[in-house]
């Protein structure tokens, strides 16, 4: 199980993410961030896009931030919007895989940053939980 909810935040928005696994947490975080961005999918193209990525960090919160930063950079560079991620490797300090999505005509809410310093922990229901703070253009 993986879910996310979008909450208001002074910087723009916050994405509260819950999942039974860290893979699910990372996937739901990506989906939540791109939901905030409101990507305008190019309806003239049904081409499925896969963009490889690799992230190293000293801890899992750093990995998640790095993955989201790379997804946003790849989306901006290539004109994509991502709604899924396929992992070939995920550990406490490394993530490798591919962002999966479609061509995009632009974003209704451009994202300026992903705030660092997030905490990832299991809650009382034994689900992984975090909140990703997303800076947006006003």
How would you describe this structure to a colleague?
- By secondary structure, the protein is of the alpha+beta class.
- It has a single domain, classed as Archease domain (Archease, Possible Chaperone, Chain: A, domain 1, 3-Layer(bab) Sandwich), CATH 3.55.10.10.
- It has two helices and nine strands, in the order E-E-H-E-E-H-E-E-E-E-E.
- Strands 1, 2, 7, 8 and 9 form a five-stranded antiparallel β-sheet that branches. Strands 3, 4, 5 and 6 form a four-stranded antiparallel β-sheet that branches.
- Helix 1 runs parallel beside helix 2.
- The longest helix has 19 residues.
- It is globular, with a radius of gyration of 14 Å.
Nutshell version of this structure?
This protein has 138 residues and is an alpha+beta fold. It contains two helices and nine strands.
Q: How would you name the oligomeric state of the polypeptide chains in this document? A: single chain
**Secondary-structure element sequence?**
EEHEEHEEEEE
Q: What are the low-pLDDT stretches, counting only 5+ consecutive residues below 50?
A: none
Task: Tell me the radius of gyration.
Answer: 14 Å
CATH class annotation: Alpha Beta
- Helix content percent band: 25-40%
Number of domains: 1
User: What's the count of strands?
Assistant: 9
Strand content: over 45%
Examine the secondary-structure arrangement and name the CATH architecture. Answer: 3-Layer(bab) Sandwich
Q: Kindly report the name of the CATH homologous superfamily.
A: Archease domain
Task: Report the span from N to C terminus.
Answer: 33 Å
Continuous helix count: 2
The mean pLDDT is 93
Structural class: alpha+beta
Biggest sheet features: 5 strands, antiparallel
General shape: globular
Q: Write the CATH fold name.
A: Archease, Possible Chaperone, Chain: A, domain 1
């Amino acid at each position: 199980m993986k879910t996310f909810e979008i909450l208001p935040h002074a910087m723009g928005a916050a994405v509260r993410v819950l999942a039974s696994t860290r893979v699910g947490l990372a996937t739901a975080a990506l989906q939540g961030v791109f939901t905030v961005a409101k990507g305008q999918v190019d309806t003239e193209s049904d081409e499925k896009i896969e963009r490889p990525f690799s992230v190293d960090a000293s801890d899992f919160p750093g990995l998640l931030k790095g993955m989201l930063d790379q997804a946003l950079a790849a989306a901006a560079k290539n004109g994509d919007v991502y709604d899924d991620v396929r992992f070939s490797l995920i550990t406490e300090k490394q993530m490798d895989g591919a962002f999966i999505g479609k061509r995009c005509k632009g974003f209704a809410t451009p994202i300026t940053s992903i705030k660092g310093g997030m905490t990832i922990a299991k809650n009382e229901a034994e689900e992984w939980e975090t909140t990703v703070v997303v800076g947006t253009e006003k």
